[in-house]
Amino acid sequence: MSNDPFNAIAGIVPTFEEEDQVALSRQVLAAAKADPIRGGPMILKTPGGGEEEVEPGRWHEHHAQWHRLPLACPVTPLGKQATLSGTTYFFLDTLGEVAVLAENAGKGHITSLFGGRPGYLTWAWPRWGKHGVTGYAAEDARDDLFAACTYCGTFDLEDRVRGRGAWRDDDGQLIFHAGDAVWISGQWRPPGQHGRFIYPGRPKIGRPSRSLERAGAGSPGDVLLQGLQSWNWDRKELDPRLALGWIMTAMVGGALEQRPVIYVTGGEGAGKSTLQKLFRFLMNGALLATSNTTQAGIYQKVKQDSVAVMVDEMEAKEDTRTTDKILELARVAYSGDKMQRGGKDGVGQEFSVNSSFMMSSIAVPPIDAQDASRMAILMLRERVSRDTTLEDLGLREAAKVQAIGRQLLKRMIWWFEGRAGADWQALIGEFKEALVEVGHNDRSADTFGALAAACHAALRDDMPTAEELLEWQGLLKAEQLVETSGRERTWRRAFMHLIEAQPDTIRNVKHKSVGSVLLAWRNNWGGVIDEKASLEDVLYTLKHFGMTLSFGKDQFGAPNPEDWKHARLFIPAKHPGLNVLFSGTPWAGKMGAPGPWLGVLRQMPKHLWENGKCDRGLDKKASGIMVRLSDALDWDDAMPVPMAA
Questions:
Q1: CA–CA separation, 258 vs 446, rounded Å?
Q2: Per residue, what are the HEC states of 546-581?
Q3: How many Å apart are CA 512 and CA 66, to the nearest integer?
Q4: In which region does residue 466 sit, left (phi positive, over 0), alpha (psi from -120 to 50) or beta (all else)?
């Protein structure tokens, strides 16, 4: 417990005494008081509803469960897992936490497993002496415990255990694990096994409010949005709404199909720290807030929880490996995919991440297109004057902010449960459809559709009107958003790198890049008076990379003119020069092997390229692709693909 990253946060969360009927510690204490004195009988309830006194150690014949542990055993066997380094046995201990015993477990491990229930141990597995029961027989207990796990079968921690936060059951219904209680089918239940999943006992996080406040002016969502609007956002109408939408999605991240990421950037004095503090209180402990961390540091602390993650100080640095790994983790969490990592003794480890990520820094580090499509980038500008909105709304008071957070969580659960016409799946479907109409692709519609739908859920009790959807379409036009307007397909980024890179291979040549010599040669036909180049200049530059120009034949089989209009750039599948040119990029290859650049370039629209072989130079039989230069360089991702393609 001492290393649990949530302990400090959980300490400020209200105690919820009115709902402590399932408080784990009280359950254990009450059960321990009912345990028999050493050597005395235990009163067990029989399957028929009666009660029977059972003497120590005499439960095996008629008072065992199906897995051969005693009735009312406070420890639940889960299963076993065999690895190269040995066998591990999994249990739920007396507090409902997942505990593991190794095959060489000793008496101390078993005593810890039955923590708080020493009387039960001496009754179930008594050690007899001259004067009666003197303790418990650890070897007998271990044998029965290990056998019970074997009867339960194999057990995978990552596939079966769900920590704190929101989840979905097999029917799509929302489940919320608050640490000390689990909300299932409209009621609180103690941690443990529910269905095929294990919801272990953990330090408590904030539960949703017991009743729902209606939306409208002065509602929790409305008050919070007013507070968020007091920051000096770059997009004054849109960004505070997206921030509200992220809070709503982050509260139930594990229950979402996609978990949008937000990146908050801004200089000193813009209010990032105040915003982060507000988010901490709103999340009521269901948030891992960290800075200057690593990918491993995050997933080792989050473990099986689906709570949100807030990473500060994601600054752009010369060495981007740490930030790249964190961005990779956020990308995995977006879809709830699994990651595999090597473990000790050659045993691999698999884990899944179901957390919503928020990152912040003064300068945004380099972000790949695949990551940018999963996030909204919110920019804060320096405040021009002191604003008292937060004080006026009471959003500087921790208790009030926490109450708003619990009410918003209740509202999000309400939308998931489909009461009074609320339907989260229908809501998010309408927003995604509306965004596709204004230029979004499926990925960006998933991202911004979820944020917009969640913001609506915070402020409204019913589905959006046509006017409300039209307003969101105006705010989220793909061509106007910084996150999507500069969107460039991977094949085009790879192709333009090939054209624009200036490798040392040609540093002493007149033209420093493939693109510069092609442009100069094109000018021979474009009527431009700038510097020109001959076809021989082009072929000389291209041969450093195994590339060349081909012009093909017309419909009658006659050679086409060797001009820009008919020029096709041959790009080989492998060549040492291309390995150098793509060095340091995701498309770099290995010497002697086909490079990944060819597979990426084949993703361009089919009418822009064709498979072919080189017909010049030393290796005239080299295979690769022919790219129609004029069409490829003029291509825009917004252009419709010709029907013939």
A1: 7
A2: CCEEECCECCCCCECCCCHHHCEEEEECCCHHHHHH
A3: 77
A4: alpha
Q: Is the dihedral of CA 341, 344, 347, 349 positive or negative?
A: negative
**In sequence order, which residues have a C-beta less than 8 Å from that of residue 218 and are 6 or more positions away?**
none
Q: How far is CA 99 from the centre of its chain?
A: 26
CA atoms within 13 A on the CB side of 548: 20
Cβ count near 127 (within 10 Å): 16
Structure tokens belonging to residue 238: 């849109």
Give the single-character DSSP code of 283: H
Phi-psi region of 68 (alpha: psi -120 to 50; beta: other; left: phi over 0): left
Cα–Cα distance measured from residue 598 to residue 606, given in angstroms and rounded to the nearest whole number: 13
- Residue 111's closest CA among 120, 23, 39, 55? 120
Angle ∠(163,168,171) on CA atoms, nearest 5: 145
pLDDT tens profile 560-601? 999 999 999 999 998 988 988 998 888 888 877 888 998 889
- Phi first, then psi, for residue 2 (nearest 5°) are -65, -25
Of the candidates 357, 351, 359, 354, the residue with the CA atom closest to the CA atom of residue 300: 351
The pair of three-digit structure tokens given for residue 200, joined into one six-digit string: 């272990």
* CA separation for the pair 403, 406 (Å, rounded): 5
Neighbours of 574 (CB within 10 A): 19
Please give the average pLDDT of every successive group of 10 residues along the chain, which has 645 residues.
39 39 68 88 82 90 88 92 88 90 94 93 93 93 96 88 91 90 90 89 91 92 96 95 97 94 90 93 93 82 91 72 86 80 54 88 78 87 85 93 96 87 90 94 93 96 95 93 76 90 76 87 60 83 90 88 92 90 85 85 91 74 90 70 37
Instruction: Give pTM, 2 decimals.
Output: 0.78
Count of alpha carbons within 13 angstroms of residue 505, beta-carbon side: 20
The whole-angstrom separation of Cα 423 and Cα 430 is 11
**3-state secondary structure (DSSP) of residue 241:** helix
User: Who contacts 203 (Cβ-Cβ below 8 Å, separation ≥6)?
Assistant: 1, 4, 6, 7, 10, 179, 180, 285
Listed residue (283, 366, 270, 253) closest to 317, CA to CA: 366
Identity (one letter) of the amino acid at 167? W
Q: Tell me the three state secondary structure of residue 34.
A: helix
Gap between the Cα atoms of 200 and 304, Å rounded: 10
First-to-final CA distance of the chain: 61
CB 213 within 8 A of CB 245: no
124 close to 57: Cβ distance less than 8 angstroms: yes
The DSSP output letter for 639 is S
Q: Which two tokens stand for residue 121?
A: 């141990």
Quick one: which H or E segment has residue 129? strand 126-129
> Are 253 and 354 contacting, i.e. CB atoms less than 8 angstroms apart?
yes
* Residue 454: CB atoms within 10 Å: 30
CA atoms within 13 A on the CB side of 67: 20
8 A C-beta contact, residue 374 and residue 331? yes
The full 3-state SS of 96-128, as one line of letters, equals CCEEEEECCCCHHHHHHHCCCCHHHHHHHCEEE
